[in-house]
Amino acid sequence: MEPTTHFFESIKLPHFEKEQALRIVSIATATAVLYQSYRYITADKTTKKPGLKEIPVAPSCYPYVGHAFSLGRIPSDTIRQWHKDCGPVIKIKLGRRVWITIADPALAHKVFVTHGAQTSYRPHLNFSHKLFSGGGKNIGFGQPGEIWNRNRAAAAYIFQPKQVEKYISFIKKEGVDMVQRLFDYTERDGTVDPFYHLKLNYLNCIFGKCFGRTFKNIEDEEFLEMTSMVENIMKYLAMESDLTNYFPFLERFDFLNGGIINKTQELMDKRHPLFMQYIAETESKEGHNYVKALNESEFDFSDDDKVLFMSEMVAAGSDNLAIATNWLIAMLCHQPEVQTKLHQELDLFISTHGRLPESHERANVPYCFATIREAMRWRSPTFFGISHSVIEDLVVDGYLFPKDSIISGDMMSLHMDPTFYENPEEFNPDRFLPNAKSLHAAATGKLEERDTFVFGFGRRLCPGIHLAEAELFYTTTQMLASCLFEPTSELPDLNTFRYSGNNILAMPFQVKITKRANSVV
Ligand code: HEM
């Protein structure tokens, strides 16, 4: 009741008593609900066309609200179950908007890649489109067109393998520093939660490359501020996070919706000056960084463009990697035999070559690379990647994907498809042996040639994929060459997810990380 009282006290309604105002608001809301219900029902009928297979509507759909209140605590868990009950493609209704999720790799590939010309758009959502991407001016939430092409070309330029090479020694150093911190914290406290150390490592990797500066440790206030900004961005990017996208009348009653309009605006008001300051600081920094790379290139970025570009890279290029590596560590606690095999393979390479492997030598440490890949298959870092939108009515395999519907691949379901992956529930790095093809090769090409979906699809495929591969490879090999991961009496929970919006996070866990007695580094 308190926010309601506060709301009515804060608005200026000189001609109405509060009770009158409350009645008016109720009547207005009821009218809006009835009007929207009418439009919702009639709109739905117009999408039905003869001779087409009906995409099943997921269960627990209610008039007007659709599934908005049926998604549960972890929407991906609910949607995965709906796929099991209703099949590989389902329709979810959020107010008047239609969200179609796909759990079948072949259908997903056809929809997003074969028909990429129609499906490489992004839905217009309040936070991602209007605020985070400044009205569609960044890569992730811009629509195909001139600005998006420029941004994508700039990303392709700074993330091409040749450019990634320039930062390898920096990535390696960050890995060495993180391992030392893991040892220090274990020595001090007996055990350590690796997640924030991984976040610091990967945030430093991308932040260092963007701006030529890094954060000291996990208590560093600037690190905490930046990591909280990234976490909030990931939270608000989730489809279900902001109901005003589906019930626009809620914009007038922000307090009913958790104050999301205020919170997202505040977040972006904080981002702009902070990133402007980081960009300005790079002028005086020695060495190469992405801001300088953009300045030197012909892409013609204004300072505001750079804020959008860099903040997107920091958000997209840090947490996903930490989440993937955190799941890997959680899994190693459960499967010590996998860890032993990883140690043996790496030790053999190091003894033979007198150094750790480079990422282009992944075929020489195939089990190690396969384990990184299996960790991402088994627990994809995101629930739905980034959702796409279809620009015109599209029929694929007899299913109608209506114009403007939001479409997503359900990552967990795609990677648990038994026709695509044998015994998918089993964590088994051997499934990716002996093929040590790059992540890019694994995520592109014909359906029968690809065996990962975690980096998305076709024209929208993650442009940071080469960088992601390098960072995952060097961080993991550095850790495994030096560290022994031992569980505490409580093993990490592998089956419960922590809600964080867009990402699939493990529940917090502790692990003992010590220097391996027989380490050869
Ligand atoms: C484990 C690490 C990563 C994962 C799992 C991941 C996953 C994804 C996914 C699923 C998408 C959406 C693709 C689609 O819409 O079909 C995406 C897009 C994107 N990623 Fe990544 N990513 C990772 C790392 C990175 C890194 C390191 C960067 C750059 C620093 C990056 C930058 C981007 C950008 C800019 C987009 C938007 C592309 C567009 O909309 O055209 N990502 N990523």
Automatic annotation (TrEMBL):
It comes from the Eukaryota. Its cofactor is heme. Keywords: Heme, Iron, Metal-binding, Monooxygenase, Oxidoreductase. InterPro entries: Cyt_P450 (IPR001128), Cyt_P450_CS (IPR017972), Cyt_P450_E_grp-I (IPR002401), Cyt_P450_sf (IPR036396), Cytochrome_P450_fung (IPR050364). The lineage of its organism: Eukaryota, Fungi, Fungi incertae sedis, Mucoromycota, Mucoromycotina. One of its GO terms (molecular function) is monooxygenase activity. Belongs to the cytochrome P450 family. This is Cytochrome P450. Transmembrane segments: none annotated. Heme binds at C462.
